[in-house]
């Protein structure tokens, strides 16, 4: 693989949404210049660090993704400094997909101009809901009107591709309000949608409240699992009717508008991540995959940077990833391709599990491949865990770093 994806983490937000479990926070804006300096230093040192790990770091970059956090709060001059460093260290392909995550209502004209000057051609908006009450109770700072206006602004400015994120399962959401959000998404002209189901875990305030009790974050108004699953399935049908096809568990696009950067994650193509909580996947000179993870604490990153956690994957771990990342894609996994890459014996070790999953109607055969059924997609994390359990008896050189 002779090209690279670049992920840049900007973990700064203006407020913390109640459902958010990312390593983002409300940090002083005065920390931004120092943070961009650190990112530039990491970009400068990337080749040396790759060499230390015996990893190949392609010079050609064909996708860049600025995620967060809220990268659209960056002052344009800092954005330009960052892109200048990227161009110094790498050769960005003229056709590269360059995405920035933006929060509606937090994208000034100067930022919009600055990002266009940096070559940004894809914007991903964290809308989550077009219903004002649902946005307000989760701490979003925009309303429906602002979200619609900002999608229109970037399309009018000539940005080729726009994604809108929505979450199924927000407090007070109903099937009716969910359909209204989906219809509004279509009316904006966005050509890509990411549909997530609310995650309940200890890393968000709403998640903690759902697991314990309390009324501060409206946990009691969160739809139950069945209603959430119905919303997700309704989104698949509705978006398909509108010509926006599901190509991954959470991602939908008009033909040709699939996120090339995110496809790298699921297809196990190399990417370099820099910044707080950024992950990388590089290919070693011995052709084995290497995963690197940067710690998720901003002050550590700025003041006492630690070496990333590095894991050289065994062949067994690589195969596990082939399954649980490849099955995220609607087209699924080709047994033939896996056999060619890893050999028949390795692939055969999974046959009993594959038979079980086919019998349970969680997997299905399609055009010579295996893919999740719609029921399998609903409980995909449980399905993926079974691929890891399958090989846990086999020798593995170290623990798996979480991916994407
Ligand atoms: S959901 Fe997005 S905008 Fe809200 S706190 Fe998390 S990263 Fe920031």
C-alpha Rg, in Å? 21 Å
Helix content: 40-55%
Quick one: CATH superfamily of the largest domain?
Answer: Aldolase class I
Structural class: alpha/beta
Give the second-level CATH assignment, the architecture of the largest domain. Alpha-Beta Barrel
Number of helices: 16
The main pleated sheet reads as: 9 strands, mixed
**Small molecules bound:** iron/sulfur cluster
Task: Give the number of DSSP strands.
Answer: 16
Distance between the termini: 19 Å
Describe the structure.
- The chain is an alpha/beta fold.
- It folds into two domains: 3-264, TIM Barrel (Alpha-Beta Barrel); 314-404, Arc Repressor Mutant, subunit A (Orthogonal Bundle), CATH 1.10.10.
- It is built from 16 helices and 16 strands.
- The protein has helices at 32-52, 76-89, 109-117, 132-137, 144-156, 175-188, 205-211, 225-241, 260-267, 298-303, 315-326, 335-342, 344-348, 351-359, 374-378, 380-391, and strands spanning 3-10, 55-56, 60-68, 91-102, 122-128, 161-168, 192-197, 245-248, 251-253, 271-274, 279-284, 289-293, 309-312, 333-334, 363-366, 369-372.
- The strands form three sheets. A nine-stranded mixed sheet has the order 8-9-7-6-5-4-3-1-10, sandwiched between helices.
- Helix 6 links the parallel strand 6 and strand 7 (192-197).
- Helix 6 (175-188) packs parallel to helix 8 (225-241) and helix 11 (315-326) runs antiparallel to helix 16.
- It is globular, with a radius of gyration of 21 Å.
- The structure holds iron/sulfur cluster.
